[in-house]
Amino acid sequence: MTTILSFVLVIGILILIHELGHFLVARWTGVGVERFSLGFGPVLLRWRGKETEYCFSAIPMGGYVKMLGEESPLEGAASLPYDPKKAFALKPLWVRFLIVFAGPAMNFVLAAFIVAVVLMTMGRPVWPPAVGRVVESSPAASAGLRSGDVITAINGTRIAYWEDVDRAVAASNGHPLAVAVKRGDTVQTIAVTPQQTTVQDPILRESKTMWDIGAGPQSVPQISSVSPGSPAAAGGLQPGDVVISVAGRRVHTAEDLVHTIRSRPRQPLPVEIERDGRRLTLTVTPNAEEEKAPGGGTTQVGRIQAGIGSKAVSFVAYDPARALWHGVTWTKEMTTVTLKGFWKLVVGTIDRSNIGGPIQIASMAGQQAREGLGPLAMFTAIISVNLAVLNLLPVPMLDGGHLFFFVIEAVLGRPLSLRKREAAQQLGFVLLMLLMVYALYNDLMRIDAFKFLR
User: How far is the C-alpha of 138 from the C-alpha of 318, rounded, in Å?
Assistant: First the structure.
């Protein structure tokens, strides 16, 4: 029931905001709206406004705003059965573009707003600047930094949280850092020279270089979500589990845990966890997945299909101005990640089995809801950005397809013929149906009962 209610809530909010964008801009620019519908197919509930019919329809996977004169010919306006001034097709090109673009734009706005509200009310997770792990032979180890040290300042700038350490190291450009360290009752300053290291992005599966000192905060990895039918689920892991050690080795950070799993495909791993104050030992066997190696070719890496984060020590709330700024910044960064992810799915860099449909969205919504209102809100923001980007793709039947037609109209000085637009819409419909079927197939493959379909 939690999964169903969470799915309906998330999808309902996203569709409502998206269609509300089209509706409000259409009304603002003087375009008449015949029907505002949440859902497709047979109408379950309707009521009539002054000019618009509002509906709830049977299929909840979308919605639409039907405007007056969407396909009216430019000639013969005087004979139209409604006021030509309210016809969508008779409006200037920039007005039509704005109305169509308003849907995805509202999803971007929603994402930024959700993030801002979460930061104001719940705050962001932070970790104290206390050193946890120190990698052997790293700059931190060579400089004498030890586990348990507290970093109080870097180059004279006060350090409040570990994220301040990360920022200072990233901005160092490899220059030595004067690190003030509190060890017991004494404070000393040591010189640490960051070095460049290559890390693997867990989402986009691409390598990137960064400055690093080989030290991390005192934190523990925590399971944030578990996909149904995944190795994590088969091993008994649950959201909220705190991971203490893997294969007999203590893990200090989420990165440690991810690295350990990636390096042991198909190997049964004893995983020591803490759940509700009790210590348990589970056995998890990662899948083996092909991944492009940095130097060319492919390599096998282990995956357990679970979200892995770090258990926060405390949360720091933002003031409204900073929260809004970070909400906009987060939305911009998530948009970039989503675009890169879509492209990598197309070219095959990311396995297309990661494409998910309504079942996976419902499953993830339920998992996030069980973790709390904050995780569910952030999940809604992520899906909102994904929905906006997907709708802006230049595919007929999507908002991006309509915008693409408008660009062609601006270049040619006239719209494409109705016949050509209808043919493109039919092609777009077929492509979207194929994508939905493939996504649903992937959803079913994640459920043990449907493995026989492979």
Answer: 35
Beta bridge partners of 169: none
CA-CA distance, 99 to 265, in Å (whole number)? 50
The DSSP bridge partners found for residue 274 are 242, 279
Residue 371 a catalytic site member: no
* Whether the Cβ atoms of residue 256 and residue 245 lie closer than 8 Å to each other: no
Which residue is listed with tokens 């190795």?
231
Token pair listed for 240: 């909220």
* DSSP-assigned letters across all residues of 356-382: --HHHHHHHHHHHHHH-HHHHHHHHHH
Q: Which domains does the chain have, with CATH numbers?
A: 126-217 (2.30.42.10), 221-309 (2.30.42.10)
In sign, the C-alpha dihedral spanning 167, 169, 172, 173 is: negative
**Prediction pTM value:** 0.77
* Helix locations, 122-210, DSSP H: 139-143, 162-170
Q: Encode pLDDT of 138-158 as tens digits.
A: 999 999 998 889 999 999 999
d(CA 177, CA 263): 32
Q: Is the CB of residue 186 less than 8 Å from the CB of residue 195?
A: no
**Active-site hit among 19, 71, 206, 291:** 19
- DSSP code for 60: E
3-state secondary structure of 192: strand
